[in-house]
Amino acid sequence: MREKKTINIAIGRRIQQSREQAGLTQEELAERIDRSTQFISTIERGLAGPSLETVLHLCEVLGTSTEWILRGRAPLSESNLLAVSILEKLSALSPAQLLFYDQMTGELVKLLQQPRPGDSGADSEPDS
User: Which of 82, 99, 103, 111 holds its CA 20 to 30 A away from the CA of 63?
Assistant: First the structure.
């Protein structure tokens, strides 16, 4: 009997979760990616790891990302990517620097929220 690798077990579980979420049986998934039901079962149980080509095909059929299947992470939206970038930069600051950063960004937000000359629209206050 084959020895299960931790990473193959984790990938297999995520493939199974994604398959079930897509409402597919092992047989249906196997048919869609042109593999055997036994192959899907072997992958889902973590007895073997899928090739990169197979992972890409599985993601396409299951409507999920390689980031989820391979690493267990949901893909990040653009705004989340920006937030992660900001957090990475802030993690290098000392507590005193973080406090200063917090004060500065608070003031900056206030300035950005003030109406500017020439602004029109729902965000600006009506003239008295």
Answer: 82
Q: What is the pLDDT of residue 128?
A: 44
Lookup result for tokens 């993690």: 91
Q: Distance (Å, rounded) from C-alpha 109 to C-alpha 123?
A: 15
Contact predicate 89/105, CB 8 Å: no
Site of tokens 């937030």? 83
Residue with tokens 């992958």: 43
The rounded average pLDDT for each run of 10 residues, N- to C-terminus, in the chain (128 residues) is 81 96 96 97 96 96 92 74 80 92 93 85 48
24-38 burial by CB neighbour count: b if 16+ within 10 A, else e? bebeebbeebebeee
pTM of the model: 0.58
- b/e burial code for range 81-111 (CB count within 10 A of at least 16 → b): eeeeeeeeeeeeeeeeeeeeeeeeeeeeeee
Helix (H) / strand (E) element for 122: namely: none
Report yes or no: 68 and 13 within 8 Å, Cβ to Cβ: no
